[in-house]
Amino acid sequence: MVLESSRSQKIARCLIGCGANIGARRQQLDQAIDMLRFMPGVQILRVSQFLETRPVGGPPGQPPYLNAACLIETTFEPLEVLDMLLAIENTLQRSRETRWGPRTIDLDLLLYEDCVLTTERLQVPHPRMTTRRFVLEPAAEIAPDIQHPLSQCTIDELLENISEPHLHIAVVGIPGSGAPEIADAIADVTLSRLIHAPAPLPVTGRDFSNANQASQTRDPAEQLLHITQQYAAPLLAAQWPVDPHGTVTDYWIEAIRVATTLNTAIEPNKEFEKAFTSIIQKTVPPHVVLLLNVNRQTLSERVA
User: Fold this and answer.
1) Burial environment of residue 108 by CB neighbours within 10 A (0 to 12, 13 to 18, 19 or more)
2) Given a cut of 70, is residue 214 above it in pLDDT?
3) First to last CA, the chain
4) pLDDT of 210 above 60
5) Is the bond into 125 cis (omega within 30 degrees of 0)?
6) CATH 3.30.70.560 region(s) of the chain?
7) CATH topology of domain 168-303
8) β-strands 106-112, 12-20 pairing
9) In the CATH hierarchy, which fold is given to the domain comprising 12-163?
10) 287 or 73: which carries more pLDDT confidence?
11) What are the catalytic residues?
12) Phi, psi angle pair for 195, to nearest 5°
């Protein structure tokens, strides 16, 4: 069957996430998919198997979810797809009183072709889909090769990214960006080992001057190598703990290499690079680096 449009819009392929955790879950999901199937301007291409998952967020004590994914083609625009999904949810008596609360049905527009859209009503791609297994696992079953337009990863690759354990996550940002606080929060949620930067990283000439007074050395390169050793000590591969929860740091050793390019007091030389590389080769590098971005106004308020 070929879907033909009576309007000028092109036919778009969309990925829909489906879920339910109260009432007759399977029956409600079947009903929602049937409503999509008989909707004018919509053709269902594939539907995943149902996957039972535990609730993420929201009030405690919720029953488990049944989740699925649905791949459709439609002549509707993104906001029209949203209105269609909301209408189906309302028909199946979806309650919206509690954020992330239990629901008879939940339908989310995950992807709309390669569209990137942010409005008050809708954000596409879905902002949290890249980190949610209950979304990605059924989606990968029916659309493994569809690409996420922002990450440029396929659905299969996104699922693989969250399936592999990340032994070391580094949260990086300039002073005032909130890296220590965010690292604290991640470690708390994931039960990970938390390591804060053992020493401040000097970048400007003034920073080096202050650091030199404290360490009684006048060589900025030597000072950076000393800091590199301090940063590396908790990350040595030979002493890495066997912990399935991993490690979170609020620093990245590679930032020291960047500091050498920002400070005119340090001349690039092979000896420094050789010594630096020798130190970091003995450490466990981060599997994920979260680089924090903060606007100038917020930064000024935090460091004032």
Assistant:
1) middle
2) no
3) 64
4) no
5) yes
6) 12-163
7) Rossmann fold (3.40.50)
8) antiparallel
9) Alpha-Beta Plaits (3.30.70)
10) 73
11) 94, 103, 106, 108
12) -130, 120
